[in-house]
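FAQ: What does the model actually see?

It sees only this:
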Amino acid sequence: MAPNMEQIARTCFPAAKRVTDRFHVQKLAYEAVQEMRVKARWEALDEESIQIAHAKACGRMYHAPMFSNGDTRKQLLARSIYLLYKKESLWTKSQRERADILFKEYPDIKKAYYLAMRLGLIYHQCKFKDAALTRLARWYDEVDKSGFLAFGRVARSIQTHYLNIINFLDKRSTNAAAESFSAKIKAFRAQFRGVKDKAFFLYRISMLYA
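And it is asked to produce this:
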């Protein structure tokens, strides 16, 4: 979605149909959820620091309250990082227990998590562009009504690139092949500690991989 990459694609491949890769779209949504989790964790750390200082002033030891799974509040928020990236059906037993507590304590994070998951479902369930556009519009309205500032960046990106986003449905193509090829070139370059003669390097690449 970067403007410079879009310009490169438009210049080098003027007749190509551009597709905004689904990974990057979904990543924006997951990062928005994580941003809310991190904000809540900083607030929990600040609250704990205040409680520790108060207990010290009163001449007693501070014992952080624990939830039913043994996590303190800051541990709950720190250890929830991975489950918020995963589908609910893929949670382990301990992750499910932790998620139940997290969502009970932080309903906004719960709402944000399901917003991110519903964006992924559009890719999985929609087969035609019209249906995807309708679902995207509804999802955008939900984000707007939620008032989550963390999702503002996601909503703006989708609004700007929605035509390229739904082009995915034509052939359900991703940039996995390009990423794989890029990794091969980087590994090949690393063997020689860099490149001095670019023309010869490109010639060797073409002989190996073309």
